[in-house]
Amino acid sequence: MDNPFQLLTDAFHPQYRVNFSIESLDGCVMLTLSDARGAVIAKRRISAEQRRDPKRLHNLIQSVQFGIAIDQGQAAREVLDTLSSAHLGRPLKRVQLSPGSPSARF
């Protein structure tokens, strides 16, 4: 497997500054994404197990991308459709929206 830190950096740079810091002695690290002004866009604690497993790492990257997209006002359905088409050739599980609901609840 490729270096997980490089995969994470490649997934978010150059749009965001990517920073890693040691979170705990058990191997967890903190991923911090910030914009050009230095404002924190996303933070995610990443376990050693997530970094070692390519599938879990891929899911983590998509989860962060999904969270950023929702925070920036993109529609949940649109984001899910985009991520579905890129998810290892398999669709992601769809979130069922209740009638009249403008967005999904997670």
Description:
The protein is an alpha+beta fold and 106 residues long. The chain has one domain (4-86). Helices cover 41% and strands 18% of the residues. It has helices spanning 4-12, 48-52, 54-71, 76-86; strands spanning 17-22, 29-34, 40-46. A hairpin with a 6-residue loop joins strand 1 and strand 2. It is globular and about 40 Å long. Mean pLDDT is 79; it is low at 88-106.
Question: What structural keywords apply?
Answer:
alpha+beta, 41% helix, globular, 3 strands, three-stranded antiparallel sheet
Task: Enumerate how many helices there are, as a single number.
Answer: 4
How would a crystallographer describe the biggest sheet? 3 strands, antiparallel
Total strand count, please? Answer: 3
Count of the separate structural domains? 1
Low-confidence stretches: 88-106
Element order, helices and strands? HEEEHHH
Q: Provide the structure class.
A: alpha+beta
Residue share in helix: 40-55%
Main β-sheet, spatial strand arrangement:
1-2-3
Q: Whole-number average pLDDT?
A: 79
Fraction in beta strands: 15-25%
Radius of gyration: 15 Å
